[in-house]
Inverse folding.
């Protein structure tokens, strides 16, 4: 087991480079199942979840070569269409193999992902959509068993703009007969990156990034150039919050400002000065952090994946803030840990009412998911004294070289073995 040891109170200053987006890399890797032959991705983040997705495809018979931030995959000779529970339970995004396996191999057996610390995480919308496209889908013994003679284009309406649900349907529809229209689709930049890659392989996808996406089925898909993965807006947002919480001054290279409007607006609300540059964002924080209210929404609204980090930041703001989490039903597991550090936060339903305190105090804490881990790093680096964070494996799923990057910004943080 490992732990992260932090000493708070030092302003983060200097430059940090953002990497490729985890939530773009995962659907992109899965989409290689649709292709005839090999494909190649650059700007691939070195993350546990990326390794897990590659291992899942390897289990099915795909070949891949992961070198630094470059990944070559040939998933054209898959001989197994099974995503086993042992693997899926470690990464819910494994559900993203469902659509491509069905489209290319006309069958799939994918373990139900199950819930996690932030919610029950159902996949009913994925299943209903694939049934509409003509798949036979049965859920039994904890697995989604599905097969189809041929997928046929249909109109799919999503009650909720599910991100991976939209991605699964896009991938399934690329090789279906006829036209599929997705209404109330997710508009996240990661959905757009997937559509752009598939279009470069011969798919006919229009409207990605809007609520209505139209996919005209084609007979086959083949990669013909290296795809450079978009930068990670959540990693960038996390370093912006870290800078504010420690009253620092950091240049965040490759921060995709065009995907960060909602986050930048809230950082300006709390008093950060933000300078958008050609290849990134410079952020500075001086004086007291101002309070503000936040409501998480589907993109382009304020991202739920930035809510835990802002909860930490607002716990040391001047005055009271209300955070409303509308996407996941229990994404406040970081709050009890912050309370142990001296935060004054009351959770009522999907609201967190935060009374800002003058400062947090270091304490032993435990992370329960990727972004809760990020929020505890924010708190630990802002607090007085030493914080020890357990549950480090959550951090490694979503942040590449986080300690090294923070140390390069003069933050006091190290990883140690824990007994
Ligand atoms: C994606 O998860 C992201 N993961 C999540 O990031 C992110 O928090 C989430 O979108 C919301 O933006 C990846 O892209 C790999 P949803 P996803 O389906 O697709 C409900 C991180 O930290 N729903 O958009 O699983 C669901 O319960 C992770 O990087 C159904 O009810 O999220 C939730 O309340 C965490 N039925 C809401 O929709 C379904 O079939 C949005 O979920 C599917 C979803």
């Amino acid at each position: 087991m490992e732990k992260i040891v932090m000493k708070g109170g030092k302003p983060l200053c200097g430059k940090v480079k953002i990497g490729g987006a985890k939530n773009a890399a995962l659907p992109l890797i899965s989409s290689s199942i649709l292709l005839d032959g090999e494909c190649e991705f650059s700007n691939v983040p070195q993350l546990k979840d990326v390794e897990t997705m590659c291992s899942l495809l390897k289990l099915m018979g795909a070949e891949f070569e992961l070198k630094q931030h470059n990944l070559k995959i040939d998933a054209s000779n898959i001989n197994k269409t099974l995503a086993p529970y042992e693997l899926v339970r470690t990464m819910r995004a494994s559900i993203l193999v469902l659509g491509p396996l069905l489209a290319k191999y006309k069958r799939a057996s994918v373990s139900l992902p199950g819930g996690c610390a932030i919610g029950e995480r159902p996949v009913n919308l994925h299943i209903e959509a694939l049934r509409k496209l003509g798949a036979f889908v049965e859920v039994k013994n904890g697995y989604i068993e599905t097969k189809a003679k041929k997928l046929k284009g249909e109109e799919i309406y999503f009650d909720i703009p599910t991100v991976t649900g939209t991605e699964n349907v896009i991938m399934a529809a690329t090789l279906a007969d006829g036209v599929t229209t997705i209404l109330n689709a997710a508009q996240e930049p990661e959905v757009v990156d997937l559509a752009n890659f598939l279009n470069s392989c011969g798919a006919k996808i229009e409207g990605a990034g809007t609520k209505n996406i139209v996919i005209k089925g084609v007979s086959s898909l083949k990669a013909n150039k290296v795809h450079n993965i978009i930068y990670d807006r959540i990693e960038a947002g996390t370093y912006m919050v870290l800078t504010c919480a420690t009253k620092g001054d950091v240049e965040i290279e490759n921060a995709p400002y065009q995907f960060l409007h909602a986050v930048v607006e809230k950082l300006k609300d709390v008093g950060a000065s933000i300078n958008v540059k050609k290849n990134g964002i410079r952020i500075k924080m001086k004086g007291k952090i101002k309070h503000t209210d936040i409501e998480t929404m589907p993109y382009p609204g304020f991202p739920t994946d930035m809510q835990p980090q802002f909860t930490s930041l607002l716990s040391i703001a001047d005055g009271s803030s209300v955070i409303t989490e509308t996407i996941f039903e229990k994404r406040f597991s970081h709050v009890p840990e912050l309370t142990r550090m001296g935060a004054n936060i009351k959770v009522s339903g999907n609201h967190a009412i935060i009374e800002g305190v003058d400062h947090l105090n270091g304490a032993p804490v435990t992370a329960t998911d990727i972004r809760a881990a990020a929020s505890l790093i924010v708190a630990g680096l802002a607090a007085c004294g030493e914080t020890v964070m357990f549950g480090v494996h959550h951090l490694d799923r979503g942040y590449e070289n986080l300690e090294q990057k923070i140390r390069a910004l003069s933050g006091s943080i190290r990883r140690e073995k824990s007994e």
About this structure: The radius of gyration is 21 Å. The longest helix spans residues 48-60. The CA atoms of residues 147 and 265 lie 46 Å apart. The longest strand covers residues 2-7.
